[in-house]
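Bug #2210: token dump truncated for Recombinase family protein?
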Amino acid sequence: MNASLKVQTHHLERSAYLYVRQSSMRQVLENVESTKRQYALRGRAKALGWRDEQIVTIDSDQGESGASASWREGFQRLVTDVGMGRAGIVMGLEVSRLARNNADWHRLLEICALADTLILDEDGIYDPASFNDRLLLGLKGTMSEAELHVLKARLRGGILNKVNRGEYRCLLPTGFVYDDLGNVVLDPDSQVRETITYFFETFLRVGSASQTVKVFKKEGLLFPSRMRNAKFLVFQHLTASTALRILNNPRYAGAYAYGRRHYRRLADGRKVPRKRDRNDWLACIPDAHPGYITWEQFQQNLAVLETNGRGYKVARSSPPREGAALLQGRAICGRCGRYLRLRYATRRGRQEAWYVCDRAQGARGEPCCQSIAGAPIDEAVGALIVASMTPAAVELAWEIRREIEARHDEADRLRLRAIERARFDADLAQRRFMLVDPSNRLVADTLEQEWNDKLRILADAREQRERSQQQERLILDDAIRDRLIAMTADFKTLWRDPSLANRERKRLLAYIVEDVTLVKLPDEGTTKIHVRFKAGKTETLTAQNPKTSAQQVKTQPEVLELIDKLLDDHTCSQIAQLLNDRGIRPGGCVRPGKANIRFDALRVSYLAQRNGLRSRRDRLRDRGMLTKLEAASRLGIHEATLTRWVEYGLIKRHAYNDYAFLYEVPDSHPPVKHSSRWDRLTNRAKAARASVASKTL
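Reproduced locally. Full output below:
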């Protein structure tokens, strides 16, 4: 059918849409003729009968790939307007301008057929509702997608060919540059090289990326970073993400690597990187260029990172940290075989460490396996280490001390490099300022401000070095070095030296002990400690579990036994006085602020009742003692008479508290009531005492 006959009146009543697109911004800037040819299609629309104001140009997708419609807002707008019946014709220089994806292209054809919208390209006009036209448009779309695939395959093949030879130039990480011949060499800046070298040495020492960041922060060191697609460097604080990126980059081991990630586009058009397994990298050529570490060291670093990030369900070798727990990463639960967690708690103004096995509780709701106080365990293991220490291990401890000093020297060299760089920048700013025309105040003021800023940076660098030297002076002082040499002769002193960091003490332990298995025995109040040394030797220790708060304030069993014995002949107040005179204190005196409390009658009575001791009254009743009423009834006298007889010693009474008594009535020859006129109580009392004395003799 003639092209002009396909354009009907109802088409001309709607707008004509011109879609303009180039695949990249580089094409937009360089392929100007293609852009002009696309905009020239407006003339075709006018020739077919559309007015100029009816022609809608959509060029918001300039620089976007046609591989998908997800990220092309202009194409989405075009499809929307076609579906709503606003477009009479859609114009594009060729099919590839509209879409290079068959799904997007056929979706547009389907919508155009339903909306009775024509399609125009450089070759002619097509009616998607017509079978022949639609078949032709489908073939053109297929060829456009195939063309994109062929172009990509050719480019990709050339890149991979160079990659396999290690010649494809990639963006280099900080610390590497390309020389004039295109070879990868170490950065000529000595400060950059020394800082990166110190980074890997620090990681080898502390065994953790986060701990490496803390070391750089503590020592006030900055890490170099090369801005993307820029030649200048900036020095900034080291972050954990930067440390992990460097440790996982094989270029620092001198290996050429390509294809460590692959990118996939999501439905919304975003590119998502996904890491490939090391065996799936497109290229990995060890020793392709100079590196900061060896390939073996790189593999070891990756193994350390994997171990640090491993869960607690399997054994892990935790890097030594600052905590007080000596067996960090080496304590194993003797019941379930899992590695024990560490918990720190501040109680009564001091920090306590606990070895806890609670993973089953968190995962399956089971009871906590074990919870063991760390202080007695660490003390017992430390004593074993001191007793088992050999001269070789003592030499190792001294080597660690020397390593600390060498580390401070290396950090000081890096600070000197920073000062040299700041001095060079300040001198350069000064020369620029001196060369400017003084009459040009605008430029002179700017250069002067820049000079002042560089001088300020130089002063800060010098001040930082002086401050760090003052903090490290104790370690580098000769007198301290002599003291350390003396301490190496007595490892016990070195081990208990308060200035020795917990991390260094754990490093010493790591060279000797493989792991420690703990089994808590609550009934016995002890914990079994099974120590396995590196050489295979094992040792079993026993540590006393610390008392709980209730156990600490509980009265000792020997005190209860003494109270039970004293209750036979003494009242509670008398017992309290006897205990205080002997220097025995209640259990509650261990509480803060209660050190001066003493026993009293109420406390003794409470202890007797709480611990099931027989009372003083019951003990006297068992011995045949009678109450006042019972004694008066048995003697046939009045209670007042009984009281007078007690006063004159005719009857004995025994106190069972401070105000109550029981009475002892003799079974044989009990006293009887006489007339006090002819047999006075005083005479009877003397006669009774004389009778007792004669029997005693």
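Output looks complete on our side. The longest strand covers residues 513-521. Marking as cannot-reproduce; reopen if the truncation happens again.
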